[in-house]
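Illustration: Extracellular small neutral protease.
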Amino acid sequence: MNRSTAVLSAALGLGLAAAMTAVPASAATTAQPAASAKSTASSRAAYVGSAREQADTKAFFEAVMKSAKAKQAASPGLRTVTVTYDPSQAPSFQNEIANAAQIWNSSVRNVQLRAGGNADFNYYEGNDSRGSYASTDGHGRGYVFLDYQQNQEYDSTRVTAHETGHVLGLPDHYSGPCSELMSGGGPGPSCTNPYPNAAERSRVNQLWANGLKSLDRDVFTKVR
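Result:
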């Protein structure tokens, strides 16, 4: 959860789902954590703000939107863009992923999330010192990674909904209150709110109504 505004260093292709091979290394050998596991200091730091990989959120959003818009072009009568995700590589978080999708689907009107094949992005799970994050390799492929240990300390549905917010175009704003979903771990582990606030809902609707041209107006800024 450590991306805000930054200039992209690589162009992104349309085929996000094609050759979806950008698998986080820790996801290759994952093991179910003990119920008592706590997040590490580094994973907690990742959830409350780090300067690493600042371009990933914007790059991932651009790739997902290009992929989803390309599919929509085949059905021009559709007024709502559908973003398809594959949760099969994160079996421990099936409920959280489904809940996060439902939360966003009930919160915004211009984009909807659906599980299915030919996915625009994947979810993975495992252990990673960076905690949970949304990432792209800069070549039109991306995923949401859900860290076991971090999800033991922070509310897992909030973590998942927050990371999914990156897919829909929202940057982090860790100084925000608990009522702001993209404040992430800023308010501390006691914050369990998994819902975007009015400003966040409006921003997502704006982004998906206007398409990638909205990025030219620098709307990809911190939500206040």
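Reading the tokens back as a structure: Residues 1-22, 28-39, 215-224 have pLDDT under 50 and may be disordered.
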